[in-house]
Design goal:
The complex is a heterodimer of chains A (406) and B (1103).
Chain A: H1 2-21, H2 30-33, H3 38-47, E1 54-57, H4 59-66, H5 73-78, E2 86-88, E3 91-92, E4 94-98, E5 105-112, E6 124-131, E7 138-149, H6 153-156, E8 162-166, E9 171-175, E10 178-187, H7 195-198, E11 200-204, E12 206-207, H8 208-214, E13 215-218, E14 229-232, H9 233-239, H10 247-253, E15 257-265, E16 268-271, E17 274-277, E18 312-318, E19 324-329, E20 347-356, E21 368-372, H11 381-384
Parallel strand pairs in A: 1-5, 7-10, 7-12, 14-15, 19-21
Antiparallel strand pairs in A: 2-3, 4-9, 5-6, 5-8, 6-7, 8-13, 9-10, 10-11, 15-18, 15-20, 16-17, 18-19, 20-21
Chain B: E1 15-22, E2 33-36, E3 41-44, E4 50-53, E5 60-66, E6 73-78, E7 84-86, E8 90-92, H1 96-111, H2 133-141, E9 158-161, E10 164-165, E11 189-192, E12 208-211, E13 221-229, E14 235-242, E15 250-261, E16 276-288, E17 292-300, E18 303-306, E19 311-312, H3 313-319, E20 328-331, E21 334-337, E22 340-344, E23 347-357, E24 360-380, E25 402-404, E26 449-451, H4 456-467, H5 471-474, H6 478-491, E27 499-519, E28 525-546, E29 553-554, H7 558-562, H8 564-569, H9 575-581, E30 593-594, E31 601-621, E32 625-642, H10 647-658, H11 670-682, E33 691-712, E34 715-726, H12 730-733, E35 764-776, E36 780-802, E37 807-831, E38 835-848, E39 852-858, E40 865-866, E41 873-874, E42 876-881, E43 894-904, E44 908-918, H13 932-935, E45 956-957, E46 963-964, E47 967-968, E48 980-981, H14 1000-1003, E49 1017-1029, E50 1033-1042, E51 1051-1055, E52 1062-1064, E53 1074-1076, E54 1086-1089, E55 1094-1102
Parallel strand pairs in B: 1-7, 1-8, 9-12
Antiparallel strand pairs in B: 1-4, 2-3, 2-5, 5-6, 9-10, 11-12, 13-14, 13-55, 14-15, 15-16, 16-17, 16-18, 17-23, 18-22, 19-54, 20-21, 22-24, 23-24, 24-27, 25-26, 27-28, 28-31, 29-30, 31-32, 32-33, 33-34, 34-35, 35-36, 36-37, 37-38, 37-39, 38-43, 39-42, 40-41, 43-44, 44-49, 45-46, 47-48, 49-50, 50-55, ...
The chains are: A alpha+beta (406), B mainly beta (1103).
């Protein structure tokens, strides 16, 4: 009898082992999930398009091809209702061009320059292209913003990662002529301040699932392959900042990855077209002055806007204060409540060049260029090193503790 | 009473003896109930299948023999006066239908869907009372509908094995998976109706079940079986051997059962995305002496199984399947489920019974049980939420922006175009997500509109991906998850993986013992004395299951990391202090980089629980009346100890130290607080040190009494009553047990308890009574029972993301009162020789009878709000939860069925059951029923940031069909200062203002009954055949089909999500900028559905 129990046990155990080991998926390797080479990419792209037809556009070519009408095709084609109001002279603040859904694949390809962990690029990516896809030649950087409805998108789409996006069925939207890959979205936020000026069609975020599905990761991220415009404020000014009147110049300037050198903060900000000095916090428990939770003019990078959500901006100037540019920070950034460095700290700032125009409604010629860094480590990094002299040790605002002098 | 007992032994000598034998095996049937119908006396058979009934009246008698798993038998006998009457062996036929049903029931609880916390949401009662017509019929027949006995939660039902208590002391539930697939191990049991006289334990308001596993119960020989099913597993093979009682006095029996399903790559079927492997073993040995039995039992079932989840109606509709499972995705072209439960519950039991003399016996038993239970889950840090059914990934999320408020028209005419027409929000959508038509001009009821905020193409594209069940959209995108981790490695090899599969361990070890003494020395009196003791330890920690290509996981808390700026500005902390808050272990020597599968991270704590119970019962049996009464006394304790010092506990402690009136040692316990403070001061905090929290003690008395009046042999009237208190389970006692030691405010520690009543202050108090009329005629038998139970002062915990406080909040509710009342009716009619018709019904009303008090606090120590007068931060808010009048969500409250059974002596079995279920209700989220949401002010006086009556929501319905706004008393000297009243508001039965469409969707208690009444019916059927072969061999085949009509519209349960849709009003400070929006579909309810047609086919060969 003993033997037969044993026999049955083995008879039972064999299929157990067999079944438990079969059908389990193999662990994926990097080469399984990151496109390994150009051949593989070409094969995959051909496979997902009818007749294998597709084009990988240079970013500027895509914009030139599809952003033809100043007011965008979405408005004229689909909706008798406006995209958002026109404020800047005769320029449309918002415009949307839809991209064809069917037909050959429309692709753009570039390397991600942003990182949302610091809080400045909420649901937004910027990609940078430095090679012409047709010729393979090196070219001046071309950039495109991508608006995607994905929290912590930078976790999946990391800085330095090269990606390729199938754009069919998406849209190219423009805010103040800055193009972005998006979908049309109707903003009806009646709880917004000045809601009546904000309701209407505008470029909106691409639904997360669609973006994930449309996007491939090519190779591993390599931040060393990002290309910077390294320049002084004077050079920046000459090359881009005065060029807004030229729409296409502005388009080419927006989203560039720049490194400006030899700048310092002045504690100044733009007060509806005028330069004003930020307000100092005296450590009061009750007063709001200088308290970044309550005072939008406090001397920190990104004090509150009362959840209006526009980026806060603080000027940096160059040696001799001849040129200036705004450094912009979201009030939701992790470093938003850190005090601005004093003017004695001089160094470089790395960030994304962008134009902000909503203030245009107060000043028809208003709107200003600004630079948005990924996080605080991109601000005066030279001053933050251990052997820097003077060394800038960032200080965070704290209720009841006065703002340190310098 | 004692006086009555004397000298009533007149009808002395007439007796009846006999033996009950299974016809198929010729083995004695142990534990069969033998009843004399006319004089209503019953007994059960012993290990040899023998029974003896003494002191009988001489008359013609019907002897009814019932045993679990057998077709009831009936014998007629003329009892001769003053003789020892002897029956021939009574042969019982095995009931293969009920055996299959028991097996299906055994697996039911582990097939339940579980929510994100791993909690099973809708559990069926899965034990069947062996002989009661009602219980026997409903336990299987109503299991599809998740009927629960008298509307009680599963934790009031007590489960014993050989007299040892096996409910978890942490959650109160019995873990069936321990006996996974071991249909023989669980075959024999005694089940007691609520509040009866009991013999193995004191019992309680719920049913008590005692599994009996002695080896002598099993028929000598071999049994092998195979089963096929389309449920979560697809096949089962098993083998049982039993020696029978051997000359040596020993009997041994053993079973092996293996159940399995590989991943099956098919969508829209039962068990989608689920794999299942379970190997159960059961070994029992019994030594029999003249006066004693010794039983040694061990069993366990290492199991690995995938899970599935409840989802929202939108997802069911989009995927077109009630079997959609969001937990799996394709990896390397193969199905992989992210949620794999691994469990193994090895159990050893020794039980000894000794017959001191004819009138006295005792039993002692001891058992040990270690339960390894863990489930895996995807976790992520600073990366997109990987759940395909995450609300932001669904088409309904695109409806977010389109919120129009009719009252906004006057201040901003932009909502109308030049011709006075509304702008065409949702131009391409004609109805809302509940299917309500927008009507003319797409303007919804009351002018409120919610529709897609994107263009039609964009919206439809996402809808299409869902409808087509696109692999990357509707399932886990394993490729992108791996890609993210590999990319992350390249960017920074020392960074934390963005995704991992973690394994959440909830182990439990228990040592338990019991003693039971029965004395029948006195005429008419049976005295039972029992004692039970149990030590139990819940062991909770996380380990890594799979890094998914990542190099390591860095153990910090994502919520604390996200709120770091707020946490910093709310305290006088240094930057290093703030860094501590994110840590799950603050000791500096803790290595938070985890790369191996052994290291525990996240949390590592234990809950030690002790319990001692003593009870005493007297049963008096007289000609016309039986009486019993019993008392019990229960002591229990719980104490948490942790091996990790959580940063949020540390932060909360520091905050409490700064606050006046706060209790700084609340989060560590008193002794540990001093130790930790000293170690911190000396810089000697060491990782891995064990810190023991405060012990909490509970005293719970209970008393029960009952009587049976025997109108005659065939008609009985029974009345029972019980009063008891029940200490809270650990899961409801600790506010945030993974983080800290704090308990709900009604629980005392030995330090602050002052009076005896402090030891039962937190206990739920229950009284319950039932009245039963029982009848037993040859053609019909059954019962009618009315029951009433009231409980007071229950405690319940909830955790959820709160959009008002904008962080994860723990909410402790106390003072919950509930009432359960109803009627149970069952009758079994014999229709000729072959058919039995059994109508059964249970109609109940199970509801909350009070509001509850809730204390809410942020898990990471963020303030909940700000006091508008003093500007000080408020860390705990107190408010009422408007529960009064709501129904309990413990299954359908109206149930009725009609069962037709067929049994032919040539061993054909068949039955068909038609069941109807109604009055089944959604579980309501307390966070949506807070009083402050209606009044703007909480009970503690703090202001609610965004509520139904404020200007921006305008959610209150008026009698003339408009929106009421609250009138808030602004006079600081007034007694009702800060309180809100409404003019002409429509009030519900409890005086709570009724909300307008679509706000009403957010707070109402939804009925789960199918819209079409035909879909409230479930039809089950089964057919079986037993074939006798030569040499006592037999072969049985049984096919059981549930839900024959494939009704896929039957919701068995569901719950409201806790979050409320909120928007931010710009230009306002944080503490008053929140607005409840009309987007009722943003966090909709999640539902469980009953499976469509499913079958279970068994084949058993005995030799």
């Amino acid at each position: 009898m003993r033997k037969s129990i044993y026999t049955y046990a083995i008879a039972l155990a064999l299929p157990v082992v067999a079944l438990m080991t079969s059908c389990e998926p193999r662990e994926l390797k990097a080469e399984d999930v990151l496109v390994a080479n150009e051949d593989q990419l070409a094969r995959e792209l051909a496979a997902e398009n009818v007749n294998g037809e597709y084009t990988v556009y240079n970013i500027n070519d895509l914009i030139a091809t599809y952003c033809v009408l100043e007011e965008g095709n979405f408005e004229s084609e689909e909706s008798q209702y406006r995209t958002r109001a026109i404020y800047h002279g005769d320029t449309y603040l918002f415009a949307i061009d839809t991209l064809p859904t069917d037909g050959p694949g429309i692709y753009i390809r570039g390397r991600i320059t942003t990182d949302d962990y610091g809080g400045n690029f909420y649901k937004a990516l910027v990609i940078q292209q430095t090679k012409d896809w047709a010729t393979g030649a090196d070219i001046d950087q071309q950039n495109l913003r991508i608006s995607v409805d994905m929290g912590s998108a930078g976790g999946m789409f990391q800085r330095g990662q090269e990606i390729i996006i199938r754009c069919n069925g998406l849209a190219l939207g423009r805010y103040a002529n800055q193009p972005q890959l998006c979908v049309p979205s109707y903003n009806n936020n009646i709880f917004a301040s000045s809601a009546d000026q904000k309701v209407g069609w505008a470029p909106g975020r691409i639904p997360s699932a669609r973006f994930r599905k449309a996007t491939r990761l090519i190779g591993a991220p390599d931040q060393s392959k990002l290309v910077y415009d390294v320049m002084t404020l004077a050079e920046l000014d000459t090359k881009y900042l005065s060029k807004y009147e030229d729409i296409f110049g502005a388009r080419k300037a927006d989203g560039r990855l720049v490194k400006i050198t030899n700048v310092h903060f002045t504690g100044e900000y733009d007060d509806y077209g005028k330069v004003a000095q930020c307000t100092h916090y005296n450590g009061s428990d009750t007063a709001s002055v200088g308290n970044p939770e309550l005072d939008k003019n406090a001397c920190t990078f990104g004090p509150t806007t009362g959840n209006v959500g526009y980026p806060q901006s603080r000027y940096v100037k160059d040696d001799g204060d001849a040129h200036k540019v705004l450094i912009s920070t979201s009030e939701y950034a992790k470093y938003a409540f850190f005090y601005l460095p004093a003017a004695k700290y001089v160094g470089s700032i790395i960030g994304i060049l962008s134009y902000y125009m909503d203030n245009g409604r107060y000043d028809p010629d208003g709107g200003e260029w600004s630079i948005t860094p990924n996080d605080m480590s991109y601000i005066l990094p030279e001053c933050q090193t251990e052997d820097a002299n003077p060394r800038w040790i960032p200080v965070e605002w704290k209720k009841g503790v006065p703002q340190p002098e310098d | 009473m004692f006086v009555l007992a004397i000298g009533l032994s007149a009808m002395a000598q007439t007796s009846l003896r006999g033996r009950v034998v299974a016809n198929n095996t010729q083995q004695p049937v142990v534990g069969a109930k033998v009843t004399l119908a006319n004089q209503n006396i019953s007994t059960t058979t012993n290990a040899a299948g023998e029974f003896a009934l003494l002191y009988l009246e001489a008359m013609d008698e019907e002897v009814l023999i019932e045993a679990d798993g057998f077709v009831p038998g009936l014998e007629l006998i003329n009892l001769k006066e003053n003789e020892s009457n002897q029956l021939d062996d009574i042969l019982l036929e095995p009931d293969i239908v009920s055996q299959t049903e028991s097996e299906i029931l055994l697996n039911l609880t582990e097939e339940e869907m579980t929510d994100d916390e791993g909690r099973s949401q809708a559990q069926a009662s899965s034990s069947s009372a062996s002989t009661d017509v009602f219980n026997k019929t409903v336990s299987f027949g109503w299991s599809t509908a998740r009927y629960r006995n008298r509307g009680y939660q599963s934790n009031v039902e007590n489960y014993y094995i050989e007299g040892l208590h096996f409910n978890s002391m942490e959650r109160g539930q019995f873990n069936y998976s321990a006996m996974g697939g071991l249909n023989d191990a669980s075959r024999y049991k005694e089940v007691l109706n609520p509040i009866e006289a009991t013999n193995f334990t004191f019992g309680g308001v719920g049913q008590s079940t005692n599994y009996l596993m002695g080896a002598t119960r099993y028929a000598q020989g071999w049994k092998i079986g195979a089963a096929g099913t389309n449920r979560n597993y697809k096949a089962r093979v098993n083998a049982t051997y039993s020696s029978g009682l051997m000359p040596s006095g020993w009997a041994v029996a053993a079973q092996l059962a293996y159940r399995f399903s590989p991943y099956i790559d098919q969508k829209g079927i039962i068990g989608e995305g689920i794999k299942y492997y379970s190997l159960g073993y059961f070994l029992t040995a019994e030594r029999v002496w003249d006066n004693a039995h010794l039983k040694l039992i061990t069993f366990g079932a290492p199991t690995e199984r995938g899970q599935n989840a409840a989802v929202t109606q939108e997802v069911y509709d989009l995927t077109g399947s009630i079997y959609y499972n969001p937990y799996w995705g394709y990896q390397d072209g193969k199905v992989r489920n992210s949620r794999i439960v691994k469990s193994f519950d090895p159990t050893v039991i020794a039980a000894f019974e000794y017959k001191i003399d004819e009138q006295q016996n005792f039993k002692v038993a001891a058992g040990y049980h270690y339960s390894w239970y863990s489930n895996s889950a995807l976790n992520y840090f600073n990366a997109p939420d990987p759940r395909p059914d995450y609300f932001r990934n669904l088409p309904s999320y695109l409806w977010d922006g389109q919120i129009a408020n009719p009252n906004y028209e006057t201040s901003a005419g932009q909502l109308f175009d030049a011709d006075g027409n509304h702008y065409p929000w949702g131009l391409f959508v004609g109805e809302d997500l509940n299917g309500n038509s927008y009507g003319d001009g797409f303007i919804g009821h009351d002018g409120n509109l919610v529709g897609p905020s994107v263009d039609e193409d964009t919206y439809n594209r996402l809808v299409d991906l869902w409808k087509a069940r696109d692999n990357k959209t509707t399932q886990i995108d394993w490729d992108k998850i791996y890609a993210t981790n590999y990319a992350n490695n390249a960017n920074d090899p020392t960074a934390s993986a963005r995704y991992l599969i973690e394994r959440r361990h909830n182990d439990l070890q228990e040592a338990t013992a019991s003693f039971n003494y029965v004395n029948t020395q006195f005429d008419h009196l049976k005295m039972t004395l029992g004692a039970e003791g149990k030590f139990s330890q819940g062991i909770h920690y996380k380990t890594i299951d799979d890094l998914l290509g990542g190099n390591q996981w860095i153990d910090i808390d994502a919520f604390a990391d996200r709120d770091i700026k707020e946490l910093a500005s709310n305290s006088g902390f240094t930057q290093e202090d703030i860094a501590n808050v994110r840590k799950n272990e603050i000791a500096a020597d803790y290595n938070e980089r985890i790369a191996d599968k052994k290291t525990r991270f996240g949390y590592d704590y234990r809950i030690n629980m002790g319990n001692f119970k003593a009870w005493f019962q007297n049963e008096w049996n007289f000609n016309e009346v039986d009486l019993y009464y019993a008392i019990a006394f229960d002591y229990s304790s719980m104490q948490r100890s942790t091996n990790m010092l959580n940063g949020r506990a540390w932060y909360l402690t520091k905050i409490a130290e700064e606050r006046t009136g706060a209790n700084p040692w609340l989060y560590y316990g008193k002794n540990s607080y001093d130790r930790i403070k000293a170690a911190e001061a000396n810089g000697t905090l060491k990782a891995g040190t064990t810190y023991v929290g405060d012990a909490h003690h509970f005293l719970d008395p209970a008393f029960k009494v009952g009587a049976t009046y025997k109108i005659n042999g065939r008609n009985h009237l029974k009345v029972n009553a019980i009063a008891e208190t029940r200490a809270p389970f650990a899961r409801d006692a600790y506010i945030s047990q993974r983080v800290h030691d704090a308990v709900v405010s009604t629980i005392y520690t030995h330090d602050n308890a002052k009076n005896l009543k402090d030891f039962y202050a937190a206990s739920e108090k229950l009284v319950s009574a039932d009245l039963t009329y029982e009848f037993n005629y040859p053609i019909v038998r059954g019962r009618i029972t009315g029951f009433f139970t009231q409980s007071w002062g229950a405690t319940e915990l909830n955790g959820y993301y709160d959009d008002e406080a904008r962080t994860f909040v723990n909410q402790a509710m106390t003072g919950i009162d509930k009432r359960y009342m109803g009627v149970e009716v069952a009758a079994a009619f014999k229709l000729g020789n072959y058919f039995t018709l059994t109508p059964v019904a249970s109609v109940g009303d199970y509801r909350y009878t009070s509001d509850a008090l809730a204390v809410s606090s942020a898990e990471n120590g963020m303030p909940m709000t700000q006091d508008l007068v003093t500007n000080s931060l408020v860390f705990e808010t107190v408010d009422k939860v408007l529960l009064k009048g709501l129904k309990l969500s413990t299954g359908p409250q109206v149930n009725a069925s009609l069962k037709l059974s067929f049994f032919h002596p040539k061993m054909w079995f068949a039955d068909v059951t038609v069941s109807y279920h109604d009055w089944n209700y959604l579980s309501v989220a307390p966070s949506r029923r807070m009083q402050g949401l209606y009044t703007g002010t909480r009970v503690d006086g703090t202001a609610v940031n965004g509520w139904f009556g404020d200007t921006y929501a305008n959610a209150i319905e008026t009698t003339d069909g408009r929106a009421a706004r609250a009138i808030v008393d602004t006079d600081p000297t007034s007694a009702t200062y800060g309180q809100a009243t409404y003019e002409n508001a429509v009030l519900d039965a409890n005086g709570v203002p009724v909300l307008r469409y679509p706000y009403n969707i957010m707070t109402m208690q939804e009925s789960l009954a199918a819209t079409n009444p035909l879909n409230r019916f479930i039809i089950d059927a089964s057919v079986g055949k037993l074939i006798y072969l030569p040499n006592r061999q037999s072969l049985s085949i049984n096919l059981s089909i549930s839900n024959l009509t494939n009704n896929t519209h039957f919701k068995t349960g569901g719950y409201q999500q806790a979050r409320l849709p909120r928007a931010v009003r710009q230009g306002e400070p944080d503490y008053r900028n929140s607005v409840i929006t009309a987007n009722a579909w943003k966090y909709p309810s999640k539902y469980y559905y009953a499976w469509g047609t499913n079958f279970f086919l068994t084949l058993t060969y005995k030799f």
